[in-house]
Amino acid sequence: MWQPRALGILIGWSAAASLALYFGSDDMIKAGLFGEACKQYGVASWSCGALPNIVVWLPETFVYFLALPFTYDSSEDLLGAGFLFMAMGSSVAYAIALVAVNYWICKLNSL
Predict the structure, then answer these.
(1) How far is Cα 18 from Cα 63, in angstroms, rounded to an integer?
(2) Is residue 96's pLDDT more than 70?
(3) Dihedral, CA atoms, 21, 64, 101, 54, nearest 10 degrees?
């Protein structure tokens, strides 16, 4: 493992926050953390706004690309565009996850 610098620390905390948002977004919406409009109508409504949608969308995209190699079905991909989409997105997601795991391993080893 290498010693994380500022970008590694940023990615480590961003990935941790992303996973916390991914698993807790439904409870956060029901609690009204994103505002009363999101609490009443849900994140998909127009009255909720763009920022809560982006806050929920980014962690879902990250986890989607992490899981995509395990759920990819080549029988439905005639042109190969789905494979290229998976290869580009998943490689970035796994690189981010690798840097985040490295940060947390170094952080926990230093305790």
Answers:
(1) 9
(2) yes
(3) -40
